[in-house]
Amino acid sequence: MRIAVFGTGYVGLVTGACLADVGHQVMCVDVDAAKIEGLQRGVIPIYEPGLEAIVRRNHDEGRLAFTTDAARAVAFGELQFIAVGTPPDEDGSADLQYVLAVARTIGRHMDAYKIVVDKSTVPVGTAERVGEAIARELATRDVSIDFDVCSNPEFLKEGAAIEDFTKSARIVVGTDSERVRAAMRECYGPYSRNHDKILFMDVRAAELTKYAANAMLATKISFMNEIANLAERLGADVEQVRLGIGSDPRIGYHFIYPGCGYGGSCFPKDVQALARTAREVGYEAELLDAVESVNHRQKRVLFDKLVQVFDGDLAGRTIALWGLAFKPDTDDMREAPSRVLMEALWAAGARVRAFDPQAMAETARIYGVREDLELVPERYDAVDGADALVICTEWKPFRAADFARLRTLLARPVVVDGRNLYDPRILREAGLMYYAVGRGESL
Ligand code: NAD
């Protein structure tokens, strides 16, 4: 099939590259000329394991093209994927300006039947709005061309995007058109050889499915953080509680890790947007509001622990950070808990010395050059002479550490672990003061 993909971010680029990799002809289009120019030279704008090889291979073999020429992409694709950002608006609702801009572009340039596929995460009712925007452009041009809009939300995780896209548990498609069903079966057929993974449903159900999935996952995290905070005050170890509840198959072990809060471009904005949608239809989504406010509070937990350790006196101290990205295997810093911590530390007059395997360039881009931020090339460099080490992201190489070396390097033997990576007993035996999340200490 010939497929156009609007947006070459985490979702658009992965979608385009993976669909090309199973034999489709894909044209990716973006308004960011520098990004497109880089992609044409094989420069991948994001860190995503495995993506670079797939992009290069398919580009070299002529199945994957990059352009800023939207008219060309509209003419090219039978399917028009919309995979642009839907950031939160000031009131928490999803900002649809980029999605609707693409819809207008398609309406302006299409000269034959098109299937428009909403892959961006969009509120219920957006497919209708996309359809209306296209219809308005066609009316302005005084032409009558048939088209369909379907919903195909994306469930990939950054850091495992290729694996998630190619081996997804389900492919949700919302449509009431047999023609769209046939086209989407052809598009995703290569991923359904083992068994049919496509779940056809109504458009509105598909749109809501995406929000419901993210809200459920965010709820699990906030719930576990609530239990962790309680455990801490009750002198119980939440890690033992985690194992105790995870062993119940109705609960399961997935996604019940306590920590310093969820971040990223999806959970925070999607929980807020769903709560906002609820309000618009006169429903107070109390659970969703609580998930959001628990997370907001949780992102302050690391700073609060440091304040207690240092009796509120953080001015002039150097705090080492291991991990900046909102989660491992990505360079994405959107809504990362590390940002809340760093900004609070700077406001308190402390310096940050940080290491992250992938997100340091992004951190430098966001914060620029500043005296109270030093990014170092190796994790133990961050710790040398620091007053405390804080772990913000559970990158794999952080899971084991040389505690004796930490003890020697740190000016004060304080380790604050936002991801509960270590055994408190072993750290204490190594002479370190260890503060994790919900592990029964008083801090
Ligand atoms: P992103 O910010 O990484 O990329 C969006 C891209 O769209 C940018 O490159 C931008 O330049 C481009 N763009 C903006 N307007 C455009 C236009 N008119 N024409 C062409 N390109 C345009 O976004 P993302 O993280 O890939 O997210 C895209 C959507 O997918 C969002 O709705 C998001 O909620 C959803 N989603 C994201 C993830 C994730 O893990 N990042 C997972 C599932 C769903």
UniProtKB/TrEMBL annotation:
It is an enzyme of class 1 (oxidoreductase). Pathway: Nucleotide-sugar biosynthesis; UDP-alpha-D-glucuronate biosynthesis; UDP-alpha-D-glucuronate from UDP-alpha-D-glucose: step 1/1. The keyword NAD applies. SMART domains: UDPG_MGDP_dh_C. InterPro entries: 6-PGluconate_DH-like_C_sf, NAD(P)-bd_dom_sf, UDP-Glc/GDP-Man, UDP-Glc/GDP-Man_DH_C, UDP-Glc/GDP-Man_DH_C_sf, UDP-Glc/GDP-Man_DH_dimer, UDP-Glc/GDP-Man_DH_N, UDPglc_DH_bac. It comes from the Bacteria. GO terms for molecular function: NAD binding; UDP-glucose 6-dehydrogenase activity. Substrate binds at F155, L156, K157, E158, K210, F255, I256, Y257, P258, G259, G263, K327. GO terms for biological process: polysaccharide biosynthetic process; UDP-glucuronate biosynthetic process. Its EC number is 1.1.1.22. Keywords: NAD, Oxidoreductase. NAD(+) binds at D30, K35, T86, T121, E158, K269, R334. Belongs to the UDP-glucose/GDP-mannose dehydrogenase family. NCBIfam families: NDP-sugDHase. This is UDP-glucose 6-dehydrogenase. It comes from Pseudazoarcus pumilus.
